[in-house]
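note to self: dont lose this again. the chain is below, predicted strucutre after it. 208 aa total, dont forget to put it in the shared folder this time
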Amino acid sequence: MRRNPLISIRKAEATSLNRIFAFNKEEVTHFYDELGYLMEKHKFIPSNIYNTDETGIATVTDPGKVLAEKGQRRVGSVTSGEQGSIITVMSAAGNFITPMFIFARQRMTPLLEIDEPAGALYTNSKNGWINEDLFVTLLKHFAAFAKPTQESPVLLILDNHSSHISLQAFNFCKENHITMISIPPHSFHKTQPLDVSFLWVAESRLWA
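---
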């Protein structure tokens, strides 16, 4: 490596086989062809182009330092392993809508909303991840912020999660001038704007 300054030792990132095979020229070209067609048809401006992404978070932070007797090898701290997720929506102009939090629980409690962002959505599901009903809830939250009209429609770029494909979501988007386009499956590590430019930083700095 001293002989070749262009080579350095880097820590490899884990990449599944699905991601490797899905990220191919044919799939990506088709996606950008569709995106180009929609851009030409609707003339979307940057503030009307949005991307949404969901990422998992721990609802309990790592335990901090505690006082313990000298010589004690192990010091325990009881915490919950409960997980949840947060859904972020951002425009190409850099505008955010308030996030949607999904907690893995049967019922919501106001305690979960203490010190959280004003205007955010607080919801729950069995596994802490989005489903068809919660996606429609997100769309309504999004439409209230973006205020799409026939003269000023919006584009929503998202992954092809099964929760995004429902008749209720399709009808809502059609009635509210929202056009959705899905990125190629298993390719979010390369084509999902929020994933490659924002969420990984937030995860490493805030939720690590």
